[in-house]
Design goal:
The chain is of the alpha/beta class and about 230 residues long. Helix content is about 50%, strand content about 15%. The chain has a six-stranded mixed sheet with strand order 1-3-2-4-5-6, sandwiched between helices. Helix 3 packs parallel to helix 4, helix 7 crosses helix 11 and helix 8 packs across helix 11. The protein is globular, with a radius of gyration of 18 Å. It holds the Pfam family GerE.
């Protein structure tokens, strides 16, 4: 574990970031990427998920960049611990796609999304900005690929549970939730449902509140579990 020198507190107006990865070269690369952004400050870095809770309590970051595979406490377990905090930071999972049947666990725990480790630096930086504003960072195509990997195991029982939860929504909210599950942006949803973008944002906010979810990714997973998406989409 290491604290970046002179960066023990988030400067006013800057996005505070903690980086957790067991690969020192990856951490160095991420620190360099973040260091080039005037609105982002790396507060600390660690090589294992076991150090995350202490770092978050000490530095109160806005975003944690979290690797999945680490030797002592993996990123999935660390994400679950972080999201159980009273005021948790947003978690952005760092991964290689081959390992990502496991990333669903992180998304269900409340991670804001994931980044592939070969994502271009500018996109990683912009993803941190988006996550700090409460947005998820899964592209529609990758969202569907990930969600589709949940499919086979215990689907009937999970579908029943998901449908019971979605019954809390009114008709329009359910339409918006399904559109979120299809990976559509607010603008796309507004166009498809003949709504304004602010109205869509209000519906999404109501959906999250009614279902007790953290972000759009979890809405997408719930809609998929309920088997409300077209197989060919």
């Amino acid at each position: 574990m290491a604290t970046v020198a002179g960066m023990s507190e988030t400067e006013r107006g800057r996005i505070g970031v903690v980086i957790v990865d067991d690969d020192a070269l990856v951490r160095v690369g991420l620190v360099m990427m973040m260091g080039g952004a005037p609105d982002i400050r790396v507060l600390a870095e660690a090589e294992d998920g076991g150090a995350v809770l202490d770092l978050v309590r000490r530095h109160s970051p806005d975003v944690v960049l979290m690797d999945i595979r680490m030797p002592t406490v993996d990123g999935l377990t660390a994400t679950e611990h972080l999201r159980a905090l009273e005021s948790p930071p947003e978690v952005l999972v760092l991964t290689t796609f081959d390992a990502d049947e496991h990333v669903l666990r992180a998304l269900r725990a409340g991670a804001a999304g994931f980044l592939l480790k070969d994502t271009p630096p500018a996109e990683i930086v912009e993803s941190v900005r988006q996550v700090s504003r409460g947005m998820s960072v899964l592209s529609p195509a990758v969202t569907r690929r990930l969600i589709d990997r949940v499919g086979a195991n215990g689907h009937g029982e999970r579908a029943d549970r998901a449908r019971r939860r979605l019954a809390a929504l009114n008709g329009r909210e359910l339409e918006v939730a399904v559109a979120v599950g299809e990976g559509r942006s607010n603008a796309d949803i507004a166009s498809a449902l003949f709504l304004s973008v602010p109205t869509v944002k209000t519906h999404v906010s109501n959906i999250l509140t009614k279902l007790g979810l953290n972000n759009r990714v979890q809405v997408a997973l719930l809609v998929h579990d309920a088997q409300l998406l077209d197989e060919g989409g």
